[in-house]
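All the exercises in this workshop are built on plain-text protein records. A record pairs a protein's sequence with a compact description of its fold. Read left to right, the backbone structure tokens trace the chain's path through space. Once this layout is familiar, the rest of the handout is easier to follow. Here is such a record, shown just as it appears in the course material:
>
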Amino acid sequence: MITERIELLRTLMRAKGWDAVVVTGSDPHASEYPAERWKLVVTLDHAGLWTDTRYFIQAEQQLAGTGIALHKTRVPEQVLIPEWLEQQFGGEGLIAVDGLCVGADFAQSLPGTVISVPDLLDRFWQDRPDVPQTPVFTVDPGESRAQKMEWIRGFLQEQDCAGILLTALDEIAWMLNVRAWDIEYNPLVISYLLITRNDICWYVLKQEVEDPESRATFDILTSDGVRLLPYGDVNYLASEFSGRLFVDAATLNYQLYSALVAAGVALEEGTSPVGARKAVKNAREIAGMREAHLQDGLAMERFLYWLERSVEAGREITEWDAAVKLGGLRADQPGYLGDSFETISAFGPSETAFQTIEDIPVSDVSLVENKEVIQLRGSVIPIIRLSEILDVASLKEDNSNITIVVVKKGDSLAGLVVD
């Protein structure tokens, strides 16, 4: 099935004259966890999946026999997508992307000529889900919508901008004090938010609103001066907006960015101020975080008690059994709404665990085939310097010794240099 889809894509590429297609695992809002609608780089002779250390074992198992090569990231020898495309085509390639699911800044980093093909996967994904619309509800985090709007309009005045377009879903939820379940494990509403000096436009409507909770929420927002518009109407913004518009190219998708540029909208590009502002928690939010940790700690203690007793009784507990049990205990806690992400558990071949922390002399580090390794208790262990992966300067002043955290993944060992 996978090889057939890739060949269908390559047929389209030959017809269009594309040298490569970049498909990302994101959505029009640069979400890390997208909804099912938006769930590799393909050239005419290569298909590759780029992923980080969390998924190496899973990817190797699931890609076996598909013809898709694994490109590892967050390792010293990584070659990221823009660099790899540069190596293949020397900056002369015609690169197709789904502009709705690629951030403007990422698209601009690609070499060659980049063209946007919205909803590219529709040609191959026959039963693709619609954009979800789940019940929307309000929350009271200790700061009203009016207070937040006053703050953001102050920012617009400082930047001499007529408006700001928010595209990151967590920022929109924070600004409007709303939540929903459009994305699993993320209480967010798929939408866009335009705030000007005297107007608030929320592009949120996808279907007819039938649930009473959403109707009540929308009534509250409307009374607060928020205009509710169809989700797709954000495409008209390029022709309707006048003045300087503040955008964050890290979360603004390339399709919308290109439309705004083509229409001559004056863009002020920068980092959205909402992320830093919402990181400063007020008293109510701090109290809520403490209560959530307390309730989750109680659920975890009950889980560990159950697990210990079950093992003592000789019962075989699988990773799935443990995850289901833990989820049920969390759901029993007062005020529970949902998990923040699916339980990550592993045992045996899939297990990752810390083994030891070692302080060793730099002289003990050897080079084998241009890779740094150490020999520890009879094992040769490759080491990875976090300062190189994170691209930051080492803060370690004493260079005679290094601190290494030895971790185990299945039967493999690696040493992380904490510098």
Notes: The mean pLDDT is 87. The radius of gyration is 25 Å. The first strand starts at residue 20 and ends at 22. The longest helix spans residues 283-312.
